Amino acid sequence: MDSAFDLLALSPPGWGGNLLMGLLRTLQIAVGAYALGLVIGLLGALGKLHGGPVLRWGLEFYTTVIRAIPELVLILLLYYAGTDLLNIVRESMGLERMDISGLWAGIYVIGLVQGAYSTEVFRGAFQSVPHGQVEAGRAMGLRPLTVLRRITLPIMLPYALPGLSNLWLITTKDTALLAVVGFSELALETRQAAGATREYFMFYMVAGGLYLAVTLVSTLGFGLLERRLRRGQPSQT
Amino acid sequence: MEWYWLPEYAPRFLEGLWLTLQLLGLSIFFGMSLAIPIGLAQVTGPWPLAWTARAFCTVIRGTPLLIQLWLIYYGLGSLFPFIPGIRESMIWPLLREAFPYAVVAFSLSVAGYEGEVMRGAFRSVPRGELEAARAMGMSPFKVLRRIWLPRALQNVFPTLAGEFILTLKATPLAATITVFEVYGVGSIVRQETYRIYEPLLFVALIYLCLTFVLVIAFRLMERRMPQRSA
């Protein structure tokens, strides 16, 4: 059993360093994709609530279709469609074709998928802001953007937070799907390590442990964040 | 867009569809059979049992399904041949197929997520109803069968329906361990015809239809459930 654990050493011939690099890439992609998803979600929710009929219909189509198709299929579709679109644009500008790097492609596809889910989370949270608050803000002469920044967002965030923390956990786990497409992150590094050493069981257990650690730390962090955002609100017992 | 390959591969897509539905049905069946005791253990079980159930849910929900699937198929699968005498046993033919591993992995996943849902469901049933049942002289098991479980399931049915749709959308992962369900057939077509978009779009369309059929089916089932009159 000694030799099996030697395989986890940080420097080659051990695979520990590769796994940690993979974990770092996973976290980079997850953070980037989550941020992109939040931006899309905020804009999407505002569009769904205040936009015209065409925008609303388009957003409804986006969230329904994205949420009805498996992530794996979407990741492939968005990846190919994205690279092709980018190259068409680049060729029309007289530039050479290029491949998107794994990191940016991962952020873009996962972010676009997460955007559909966070649109729904934000929409629900926006709707739970009492209307009187917004009216009061407007009556004070605040401009629409100031109302959004100082009234709607702070009131809405505690309602959105449980959904958002759930989405973050889903995002970190979704990055594993990128292994199927061939982006090197934790799941793919693990598969390569396991395949090269034939220690399948151990390496997948270690990878599972790493993902679990990310989840547990995140849950703790979101718990603290929620307590801070809810300060000043009556405690729920 | 070229669709000349569609008639040729249509029978294989049908086989893939059947495999997807089997995988979904079996995982929901076995998963829910595990989820109910797991939820119950967390609400009323003695602490070692409750603690184990809780840890199981945390681990399953905290790791990607893909890793669980690979751990069970490649990890456990690579350990089984070392068990002496297993090659001569009855279950060896099963252990050489990929499909049973997929069913086990997906069932455990369903058990983990739905065990957590069932925990909330059992807790949401008003105490008074359980006390009334006990006062009528029902045995604990009868209370569970007649009152507690039906009321709990009724409360969370919409949540469960949403979770089952998520399970459907996870089934393509089985293709990574050579179970050729709808997505797997789609990737075969992509390899053999060198078309990128058409097979993917076709697969996406199938899942879109499956999702909508399931959503409507669940809604019909929900409507048939006895409603609580205020």
Folded structure, characterized:
The complex is a heterodimer of chains A (237) and B (230). Chain A has 237 residues and is mainly α. Chain A has a single domain (2-229), classed as MetI-like (MetI-like fold). Chain A contains 10 helices and no strands. Chain A has helices spanning 2-6, 16-50, 53-68, 71-92, 102-127, 131-139, 144-174, 178-181, 186-197, 200-229. In chain A, helix 3 packs across helix 5 (102-127), helix 7 (144-174) packs antiparallel against helix 10 and helix 9 (186-197) runs antiparallel to helix 10 (200-229). The longest helix of chain A has 35 residues, at 16-50. Chain A is globular, with a radius of gyration of 22 Å. With 230 residues, chain B is mostly helical. Chain B has a domain at 25-179: MetI-like (MetI-like fold), CATH 1.10.3720. The termini of chain B are far apart. The model of chain B has no long low-confidence stretch (mean pLDDT 91). Chains A and B meet through helix 4, helix 7, helix 9 and helix 10 of A and helix 2, helix 3, helix 7 and helix 9 of B.
Main traits of this protein?
heterodimer, A: about 240 residues, mainly alpha, MetI-like fold, 10 helices, about 80% helix, B: about 230 residues, 9 helices, about 0% strand
